[in-house]
């Protein structure tokens, strides 16, 4: 089993300091962002001490059609993954709501995402789940380090060019299970599943 990836390796592109000039449209052309910028996220998210803050993104399949929706909890490194055959705004919003529905109360406070149009329906997600979405700056994957690391691990299972229309939901569920039951050095060799179970146990006894 390979060792825990460093932030530098997880980012894949190797950048640790230089910030490229954004090629995305100006923010005025992305009106869904509004004031939901990463700088407005609560300060206590940074040290990971408070659970319930998630990072998410899409892992795009061959031809740009299918995708995996990936969510990673910052405190426990717990991962949720779901396959979609299209990744328009409505599909992604509905699937995200489904993915987090079973989470225990208090374990979904916020979600950091990039500025992709697939999250233009974030207001509906926030109403349905009670979690605020915060958009990262353009081309700034280091603002979602847990998710970038997790997506790098997913690419070990499904390299770039994989066609997710040819992958079963069962196979994706198996991958999710393997990632969540894999000991992590960053967690003192506990697994994300064990850390999540600890939180649930504490919540149920308080």
CA-based shape: globular
Strand order of the largest sheet: 3-2-1-4-5
Instruction: Name the beta content range.
Output: 5-15%
CATH class: Alpha Beta
Could you give the count of β-strands? 5
Order of helices and strands: HEEEHEHEHHH
Judging by the overall fold, what is the CATH architecture? 2-Layer Sandwich
The CATH superfamily turns out to be Ribonuclease H-like superfamily/Ribonuclease H
CATH topology: Nucleotidyltransferase, domain 5
Mean pLDDT metric = 88
Distance between the termini: 37 Å
Which structural class best describes the helix and strand composition? alpha/beta
Oligomer: single chain
Continuous helix count:
6
> How many domains comprise the coordinates?
1
Brief description of this entry?
The chain is of the alpha/beta class.
Describe the structure.
- A hairpin with a 5-residue loop joins strand 2 (about 65-75) and strand 3.
- This protein has helices at about 5-10, 90-100, 120-130, 145-155, 170-180, 190-205; strands at about 55-60, 65-75, 80-85, 110-115, 130-135.
- Residues about 1-25 have low confidence and may be disordered.
- The chain has about 210 residues and is of the alpha/beta class.
- A five-stranded mixed β-sheet has the order 3-2-1-4-5.
- It has a single domain (about 25-205), classed as Ribonuclease H-like superfamily/Ribonuclease H (Nucleotidyltransferase, domain 5), CATH 3.30.420.
Please tag this protein with its features.
206 residues, alpha/beta, 5-stranded mixed beta sheet
